[in-house]
Write a structure and sequence with these properties.
The chain is of the alpha/beta class. Helix content is about 40%, strand content about 10%. The protein contains 16 helices and 13 strands. Strands 2-8-7-6-5-3-4 form a seven-stranded mixed beta sheet, sandwiched between helices. Strands 9-10-13-12 form a four-stranded antiparallel beta sheet, with helices on one face. A two-stranded parallel ribbon has the order 1-11. The two termini are about 40 Å apart. The relative contact order is 0.17. One of its GO terms (biological process) is response to type II interferon. Homodimer. It is found in: Cytoplasm.
């Protein structure tokens, strides 16, 4: 499974094909890659939807008892099998002992978030005291911006990438309005060059260098939800801080997908959700990071009971003893049922490790890219053949597991017919279909089957025209 550090995914595919004496697009290559995959057993820790249970399925086109091809972990991760067990433990405790559950069991309700926060250390690359598990992503983003965005007459802008996720865009707009700042002047948006889909790091750094003195906060996605571009977090952080800016990231599409080293990179703050690659279920418990260097200097603008030190919290004397750092930003008691589902997933991550998952992900997505290019590279000799374009960067360092595809055939037709055949992915306006093979539960054979279904769909689109 482990390619050499210098072997690109395409080279691995071709090497295995040579060993098997078959074509690189042969099914035997996918099966061999799965045989050599040391992480393949983690698939058994998740429920994989069956074809027959998918609402858009056409049962005349599939075997109803087969597993779906689930490539939508970038939107909602699959359910770990232990979620139900952990939920039942807490429901049982509640039924049997009521309020005593606050202080006993493997997840006492008062400290439920604290009992699992250590499982996040490796995933985001931070110390336990730098991580808080609380709220939803946008709520955390607002709480962080209330403390880190302190505009002055000279430094009043927030820098973000074009087509940031709508929730981030709205959060920034509302923060600017809260301070009475004109949005068009204060919201500095970096757009890709004309004719390009993704941003160049040199263009980002140039804007920071030229305009940094007027920028209070840089807030970027770690990985762009639409294009799948992974931004150079350490380079952006270093450049922004050199100009006196606070630098933060929305890691919704990066956490659990790529390796992160927030502490070592010196990132000021970050936040993330847990229902995508972290598999904690819709509306799962979100996370926030504040670097330890700010523990005693950056304080929450809004304070609640659970930001008070636990040792004196229940004295009820209304004399705040604020926990330093991100945990002082906690406002309410942790929702224990959400803690359960996140706990079940994080335990799997601890066993698999981000380093090993990223290594598999590079090869898995590289295999997908190889197969798409093999069948659908732009062939000038046959102008009638459908074209599939990958707008996600081809460089491994600039992407996670997601590839965003565009088509010469009508996107809606392609998407709906993939759905009918049991492929679970999603479409995003204006014209992208996002495909995300997740290393925890997707196989190389999933990719092989997806490609064959894509061929079938595009062939039918050709005959339809």
């Amino acid at each position: 499974m482990e390619p050499s550090p210098f072997e690109l995914p395409a080279d691995t595919v071709q090497r295995i094909a040579s060993e098997l004496r078959c074509h690189p697009a042969d099914e035997r290559v996918a099966l061999r890659l799965d045989e050599e995959d040391e992480l393949r057993h983690f698939r058994e820790h998740f429920y994989i939807p069956k074809m027959q249970d998918l609402p858009p399925i056409d049962l005349s086109l599939v075997n109803k008892d087969e597993n779906a091809i689930y490539f939508m972990g970038n939107s909602l991760g699959l359910q770990p099998k232990m979620v139900k067990t952990y939920l039942e433990e807490e429901l049982d405790k509640w039924a049997k002992m009521g309020g005593y559950g606050h202080e006993v069991g493997k997840r006492p309700w008062i400290t439920g978030d604290e009992t699992i926060v250590g499982l996040m250390n490796d995933i985001v690359g931070a110390n336990e005291k730098e991580i808080g598990l609380m709220n939803g992503l946008t709520v955390n983003l607002h709480l962080l911006l209330l403390s880190f965005f302190k505009p002055t007459p000279k430094r009043y802008k927030i820098l973000l990438e074009a087509k940031a996720f709508p929730s981030d865009h709205y959060a920034i707009e509302s923060q600017l309005q809260l301070h009475g700042l004109p949005i068009e002047e204060s919201m500095r948006i970096i757009k890709p060059r004309e004719g390009e889909e993704t941003l160049r790091i040199e263009d980002i750094l140039e804007v920071i260098d030229k305009e940094g003195d007027s920028i209070a906060v840089i807030l970027f996605s770690g990985l762009h939800f639409y294009t799948g571009q992974l931004f150079n977090i350490p380079a952006i952080t270093k450049a922004g801080q050199a100009k006196g800016c606070f630098v933060g990231f929305d890691l919704a599409h990066a956490v659990g997908n790529v390796e992160l080293h927030l502490h070592d990179w010196g990132v000021d703050f970050a936040c993330w959700c847990s229902y995508k690659y972290l598999n904690a279920g819709a509306g799962g418990l979100a996370g926030a990071f504040i670097h330890e260097k700010h523990a005693y200097t950056v304080k929450p603008a809004l304070v609640g009971w659970f930001g008070h030190e636990l040792s004196t919290r229940f004295k009820m004397d209304n004399k705040l003893q604020l926990i330093p750092g991100v945990n002082g930003f906690r406002i309410s008691n942790p929702p224990i049922l959400l803690v359960c589902s996140l706990h079940a997933s994080l335990e799997i991550f601890r066993q698999a490790t981000m380093k090993a998952l990223r290594r598999k992900s590079i090869l898995l997505t590289g295999y997908l890219e190889y197969m798409i290019k093999h069948y659908y590279s732009k062939d000038k000799a046959d102008t009638r053949k459908p074209i599939v374009s990958i707008i996600t960067p081809s460089r491994i360092e600039e992407r996670g597991c997601q590839l965003t595809l565009t088509f010469s055939a009508p996107m809606t037709y392609v998407f709906q017919n993939l759905e009918k055949r049991g492929v679970v992915c999603d479409k995003r306006e204006p014209d992208g279909i996002r495909v995300a093979p997740v290393p925890l539960y997707n196989s190389f054979h999933d990719v092989y089957k997806f490609i064959n279904l894509l061929i079938s769909v595009l062939d039918s689109a050709e005959t339809k025209e």
